[in-house]
Amino acid sequence: MNHCIADGFGLTLFVKAIADLACGEPRPLALPVWERHLLMVRAPPSVAAAYPAFKPLIDGGASSGDDDVMLTTPLDTMVTRHFLFGRREMAALRRHLPAHLSRRCTDFELLAAVLWRCRTAALFYAPHRQVCLYLPSNARGRRMRRRHGVHVPEGYYSNALAYTIVHASAGELCGGTLGHTVEVVCEAKLRMTEEYVRSTVDLLVSLRQRGRALVFDGVFVVSDATRLVGELDFGRGGEWVGAGVAQPMRATFLVRCRDADGEDAVAASMLLPPPAMDKFAEDIAEALLITSRL
């Protein structure tokens, strides 16, 4: 399915609908809704709520990219690895946080902060260089309605992604504490409101109409794919589907898996030049050993 038609959550709804029909349901349990007007540009548009978060991506990166090894390293020489985070690993990471923050943050917020810090350190960016964490999330359903006031029906199959964006200099990010990074990620997610989502739509449409594009220099995307598809019954018992995703250069996907003991875990994909991957793996290992690195 083309990403212009639907996002990953919309694709999940489509696959689940097939499973429902295969199991004898007269219609999908989550009925599809169109309601495209919910995420159409408004008249008149208002970009005020979203513009501050997107401004660095509109203005362009902090450099020409000549100092970014992610842009100067040939793609076919980079390496891909997956890092496993199960119950024990998450508990180890949480012990780096103050008690109040450990109770407050989600596993996704914590992992996003850890991966962003370790990846930035591994790429040896100059301290003044601006880096950005870009977190797409599903704008559908009761949870977004309850927590953020965003009203997109559960059965909306098209694109309904909301974007949390966090900016920092490489020096601030790597020189501070993990707790501070988690704090700013949590605070940024709290700014997700219905007005922010609608303002984002207005802004992106406005940029497209003017022939402008977002500049993803120094951007790192962490996408939570742990709720995509999963275990489905197509009439022959439970089957595990949808576990794998392609690995783009600037993104990490978190997917569900099982560790060596058969326990639930999350696998985080990572694509880096070989020297950066070695540094990244070392920092992740040190974080899990509860050292002072973070």
Automatic annotation (TrEMBL):
Tree of life domain: Eukaryota
Name of this chain's protein: Os10g0106200 protein
Pfam families: Transferase
Signal peptide start and end residues: none
Gene Ontology MF annotations: acyltransferase activity, transferring groups other than amino-acyl groups; hydroxycinnamoyltransferase activity
Family (UniProt): Belongs to the plant acyltransferase family.
Entries under InterPro entries matching the protein: CAT-like_dom_sf, Plant_acyltransferase
